[in-house]
């Protein structure tokens, strides 16, 4: 069984957020909800300033705090390491939102599903066919596009990334590109001091 | 647990995939579209079979579905019932049938046609259906009301035609190791199939360690990813390039063999700016070995001189290279630093690094052909070239590449054709034709054939006076305001808008444009969504969108070529028609069907295969035209394209690299001098009064360091306002799309006016302060954000802030249109190329609060929640 993980190559990322929009269309996300997004920050002083672009996503932690605190077992980890939320078990208590050190979880509020992408209280046919996957009051997050992965495809954000800054693969396979990149570049995990053991790595 | 048989992810739902191409910007990345069994478009992805975009899409391409399902779309033909017209004034549309709408349009345009065909102002801007741009020619008119071209490259496109005989140009990412980007987002955030270029450039950067140096007033995406960001004072890019040239020449870091063998640099230039010719018109060169002049094609030439001053045919003359060297004497890095603020030491270092990286003298074998390898190139675009002396600016950037031999060669700066099939209409795009005296024939006309000179001027934008430029649409404001001075003997009263938003994209005073719009007797708009311009229309003719129509196109894919298919993913959602059908219907009503078909055959190149010719009196569909364009490209019918999606392949090396082998390139552009003198002679003969004010100094065969007039505005205007786009809003049509809004309006770069932190402090301004930004020509309002990524003299206004009130409630407007700050007059327009200045000198005034009209409602600065 593979253990899925992702590497972000910060040298390549141009902060375009094609990933975020691809995710939105793949997963029918309401406005303001992101399963992945790229943060940007200006660093340094003129004229030596630059800007960093940091993609963020659910890290599918091996020791996931969100799963530990979930009182109903709604958050669970698949054998391949993908951390899931079962909307039928989620009671929307928000413990996981507090517990996640990465701010990657969102509780679906009624207006998110009712207001519509165009903010006029009406849903487009695209939303009508997509929003049924969501339940108001439950918590949602990235699933590494588990259905695509199960079908042998890459997550939508990875597939679309113009600069190939997102690399997806099997962390247990020593020959996989993700493993090679992690080893060659001394990859870092986000907030490693939290001891969550993320399955997402950054190289630069 | 959810039922595993019911996928929740859109691309995994039961349905089908169709091959198509993107149209969220002007380019055409290859896509595949997923349609559910219920007929809903629910996913658009890059087509993995495309070697161009490699299955990738930019954020805009990813947001196409919401264009399709935008509730603001025009759903039926409509007639205005509110006689009052104005910005933000509700037209009170009334739905009408197609027959009635087309009959009204036919009747009104016929009236214009009968009165004076020149009275139509057309603005037809669909870049993926360039053949539609030719429709006014069928009407009998060469007016053009828009600034497409001026705001990408009024000087850029003609200069590419002069140097490469191509529409665009790009650094050859296949081999380049040292990439200078000046005022352009190529490879990072805009232009030339952005997703594709970002892909190739990222690979070159990361996998081949290609060094990137970005020269810009603002820390753009490219600058942020570059090895080095060189901040520069706005509108001084040409002087920076000349500083580089100075170092390359003075330190003898140039490719003399290339200049001698492959360019006209050794041709002798006389005091009148023309090459010195013998009685047969043959040009002289100087043989330094024999110490005498010889004709350029003399087989006995031993050593062509690049330098020196000689007497030939009784004239004092110098090689073109010497002419440039003389100009460069006044362009030391120290002298240029005073203008650009780029430290002289930085200029010297970059010039030396660039020359070293260029590996002058090296060769590479590609497909059995030995080619010079020059893996260093200077690329540039709108920000660098959008200035008064645009032709000179463009040539200065090209000359950096010329000096190291990096023109049209592996690793260098290479011409990219727009659409190789449209051979003749574009003055031979993609066609390399031998010209005069061993030189390649220049092809500065890349968008349409030359418009004949006329006086009184037939065109309100004076296109007949721009024999080597791109349509200066903004000049219509200037000529209408000064009709007598220009001898304009008619006033346009009819407008045809198609996929165009001139009131957004054109420079000059909005109020004056509004006056012109109010004076129109009749306006018809063919479009998809409401915008600043079509809210003035009398009739709306709603068009199919990119999910509902057929097309076949190839738009400037620098490293690739081949037709890209667009096919309907769904039947039309509403009562719309294709643009092709609409123009056929109008043409039939005007009695110009035969002319239109003749023009379509010509501009699409169908005459190259007679079996593809459109018959004179038939009407064709978008599918018919697309099918013919596909057949013309590779002989494959639509079935083949539907299966494959595209015919995209890497550019053929024989066309991409040195397609002009054996001809000389134009280091020195004598054609500019000739164009000046021919125009002057025509103006003299016709006694055109404006000739005395015409900017004759703009026509230079070599660039100089003269300051653009924007630097000479009154002293109180102490800062330079620039505008910019990033990849999320690359080209137009972005704001209003909820997904684009969702990523753009979270970014401080796009929600405030960026000011250098030290500059702001010196002016007593802080983060969040509201300011009026005032130029000598107009003013806008903005909210300040302090940044360390901005040149101290610059005020940076995102294009996301440039929208003003429209009927499209999805569009969040900003503090006014940036283009309001820009002059629309001759003084700030390059007489050589038609390019208007795109930088404005401004002063900032702190306001107590955001003006209520801007703070309220649907503004970027309002209190609206993002969800």
Automatic annotation (TrEMBL), chain A:
On the tree of life, the source organism's domain of life is Bacteria
Domain annotation 4Fe-4S ferredoxin-type: ranges? 4-33, 49-80, 81-111
Q: Which UniProt keywords apply?
A: 4Fe-4S, Iron, Iron-sulfur, Metal-binding
Coiled-coil blocks? none
Q: What's the name of the protein?
A: 4Fe-4S dicluster domain-containing protein
Species of origin: Aromatoleum buckelii
UniProtKB/TrEMBL annotation, chain B:
The protein's matches in InterPro entries, at most eight in alphabetical order, are given as: Asp_de-COase-like_dom_sf, MoPterin_dinucl-bd_dom, Mopterin_OxRdtase, Mopterin_OxRdtase_4Fe-4S_dom, Prok_Mopterin_Oxidored
SUPFAM superfamilies assigned to the protein according to its UniProt record, in alphabetical order: ADC-like, Formate dehydrogenase/DMSO reductase, domains 1-3
Domain 4Fe-4S Mo/W bis-MGD-type spans what residues?
Answer: 15-72
PROSITE patterns attached here? 4FE4S_MOW_BIS_MGD
Record's Pfam families? Molybdop_Fe4S4, Molybdopterin, Molydop_binding
The name under which this protein is listed is: Molybdopterin-dependent oxidoreductase
Q: Which organism is it from?
A: Aromatoleum buckelii
What family is reported?
Answer: Belongs to the prokaryotic molybdopterin-containing oxidoreductase family.
Keyword list, A-Z: 4Fe-4S, Iron, Iron-sulfur, Metal-binding, Molybdenum, Oxidoreductase, Signal
């Amino acid at each position: 069984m593979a253990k899925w993980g992702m590497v972000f190559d910060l040298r390549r990322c141009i902060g375009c957020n094609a990933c975020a929009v691809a995710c939105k269309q793949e997963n029918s996300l309401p406005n303001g909800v992101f399963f992945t997004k790229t943060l940007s920050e200006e660093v340094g002083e003129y004229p030596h300033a630059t800007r960093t672009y940091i993609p963020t996503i659910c890290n599918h932690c091996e020791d996931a705090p969100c799963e530990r605190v979930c009182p109903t077992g709604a958050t669970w980890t698949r054998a391949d390491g993908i951390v899931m939320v079962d909307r039928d078990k989620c009671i929307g208590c928000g413990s996981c939102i507090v517990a996640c050190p990465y701010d990657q979880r969102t509780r679906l509020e009624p207006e998110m599903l009712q207001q519509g992408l165009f903010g006029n209280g009406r849903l487009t046919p695209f939303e009508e066919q997509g929003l049924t996957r969501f339940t108001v009051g439950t918590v949602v997050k990235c699933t590494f596009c588990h259905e695509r992965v199960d079908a042998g495809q890459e997550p939508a954000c990875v597939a679309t990334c113009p600069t190939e800054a997102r690399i997806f693969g099997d962390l247990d396979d020593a020959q996989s590109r993700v493993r090679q990149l992690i080893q060659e570049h001394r990859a870092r995990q986000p907030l490693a001091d939290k001891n969550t053991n993320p399955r997402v790595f950054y190289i630069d | 647990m959810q039922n595993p048989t019911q996928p929740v992810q859109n691309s995994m739902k039961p349905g089908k995939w169709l091959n198509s191409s993107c149209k969220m910007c002007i380019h055409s990345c290859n896509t595949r579209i997923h349609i559910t069994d219920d007929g809903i478009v629910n996913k658009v992805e890059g087509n993995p079979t495309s070697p161009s975009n490699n299955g990738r899409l930019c954020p805009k391409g990813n947001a196409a579905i919401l264009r399709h399902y935008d509730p603001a779309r025009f759903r039926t033909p409509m007639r205005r019932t509110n006689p009052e017209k104005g910005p933000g004034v509700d037209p009170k549309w009334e739905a009408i049938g197609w027959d009635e709408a087309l009959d009204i349009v036919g009747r009104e345009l016929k009236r214009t046609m009968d009165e004076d065909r020149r009275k139509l102002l057309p603005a037809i801007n669909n870049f993926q259906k360039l053949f539609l741009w030719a429709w006014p020619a069928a009407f009998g008119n060469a007016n053009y009301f828009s600034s497409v071209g001026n705001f990408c490259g009024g000087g850029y496109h003609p200069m590419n035609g002069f140097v490469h005989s191509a529409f665009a140009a790009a650094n050859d990412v296949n081999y380049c190791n040292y990439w200078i980007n000046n005022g352009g987002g190529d490879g990072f955030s805009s232009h030339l199939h952005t997703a594709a270029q970002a892909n190739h450039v990222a690979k070159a950067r990361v996998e081949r360690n290609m060094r990137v140096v970005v020269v810009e007033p603002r820390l753009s995406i490219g600058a942020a990813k570059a090895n080095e960001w060189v901040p520069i004072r706005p509108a001084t890019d040409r002087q920076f390039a000349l500083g580089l040239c100075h170092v390359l020449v003075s330190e003898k870091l140039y490719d003399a063999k290339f200049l001698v063998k492959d360019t006209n640099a050794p041709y002798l230039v006389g005091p009148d700016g023309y090459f010195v010719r013998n009685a047969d018109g043959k040009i002289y060169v100087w043989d330094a070995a024999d110490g005498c002049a010889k004709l350029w094609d003399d087989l006995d030439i031993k050593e062509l001189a690049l330098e020196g001053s000689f007497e030939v045919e009784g004239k004092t003359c110098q090689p073109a290279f010497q002419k440039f060297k003389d100009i460069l004497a006044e362009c030391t890095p120290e002298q240029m630093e005073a203008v650009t603020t780029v430290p002289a030491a930085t200029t010297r270092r970059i010039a030396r690094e660039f020359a070293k990286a260029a590996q002058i003298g090296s060769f590479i074998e590609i497909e059995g052909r030995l080619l010079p390898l020059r893996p260093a190139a200077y690329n540039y675009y709108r920000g660098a070239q959008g200035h008064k002396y645009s032709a000179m600016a463009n040539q200065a950037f090209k000359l950096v590449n010329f000096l190291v031999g990096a023109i049209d060669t592996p690793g260098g700066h290479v011409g990219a054709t727009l659409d190789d099939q449209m051979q003749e209409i574009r003055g031979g795009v993609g066609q390399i034709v031998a010209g005069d005296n061993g030189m390649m024939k220049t092809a500065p006309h890349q968008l349409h054939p030359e418009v004949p000179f006329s006086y009184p001027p037939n065109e309100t934008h004076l296109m007949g006076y721009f024999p080597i430029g791109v349509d200066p649409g903004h000049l219509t404001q200037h000529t209408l305001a000064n009709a007598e001075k220009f001898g304009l003997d008619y006033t346009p009263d009819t407008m045809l808008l198609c996929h165009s938003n001139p009131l957004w994209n054109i420079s000059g005073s909005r109020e004056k444009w509004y006056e012109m719009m109010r004076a129109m007797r009749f306006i018809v708009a063919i479009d998809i969504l409401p915008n600043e311009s079509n809210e003035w229309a009398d009739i709306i003719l709603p068009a199919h969108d990119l999910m509902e129509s057929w097309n076949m196109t190839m738009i400037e894919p620098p490293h690739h070529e081949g037709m890209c298919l667009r096919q309907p993913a769904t039947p039309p959602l509403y009562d719309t028609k294709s643009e092709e059908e609409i123009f056929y219907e109008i043409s039939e009503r005007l009695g110009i069907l035969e002319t239109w078909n003749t023009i379509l055959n010509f501009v699409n190149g169908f005459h190259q295969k007679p079996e593809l010719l459109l018959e004179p009196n038939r009407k064709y569909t978008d599918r018919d035209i697309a099918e013919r364009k596909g057949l013309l490209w590779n002989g494959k019918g639509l079935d083949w394209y539907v299966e494959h999606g595209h015919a995209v392949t890497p550019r053929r090396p024989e066309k991409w690299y040195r397609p002009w082998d054996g001809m000389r390139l134009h280091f020195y552009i004598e054609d500019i001098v000739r164009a000046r003198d021919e125009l002057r002679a025509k103006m003299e003969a016709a006694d055109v009064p404006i000739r005395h004010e015409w900017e004759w100094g703009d026509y230079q065969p070599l660039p100089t360091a003269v300051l653009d007039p924007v630097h000479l505005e009154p002293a109180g205007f102490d800062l330079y306002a620039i505008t910019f786009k990033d990849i999320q809003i690359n080209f137009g049509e972005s704001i209003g799309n909820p997904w684009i809004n969702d990523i753009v309006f979270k970014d401080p770069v796009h929600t405030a006016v960026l000011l250098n932190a030290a500059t702001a402090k010196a002016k007593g301004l802080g983060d969040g302060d509201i300011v009026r930004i005032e130029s000598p020509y107009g003013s806008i309002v903005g909210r300040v954000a302090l940044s360390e990524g901005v040149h101290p003299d610059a005020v940076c206004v995102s294009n996301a802030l440039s929208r003003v009130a429209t009927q499209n409630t999805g569009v969040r407007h900003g503090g006014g249109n940036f283009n309001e700050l820009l002059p629309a007059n001759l003084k700030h327009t390059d007489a050589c190329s038609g390019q208007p200045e795109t930088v404005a000198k401004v002063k900032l005034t702190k306001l107590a609060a955001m003006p209520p009209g801007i703070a309220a409602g649907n503004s970027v600065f309002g209190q609206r929640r993002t969800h």
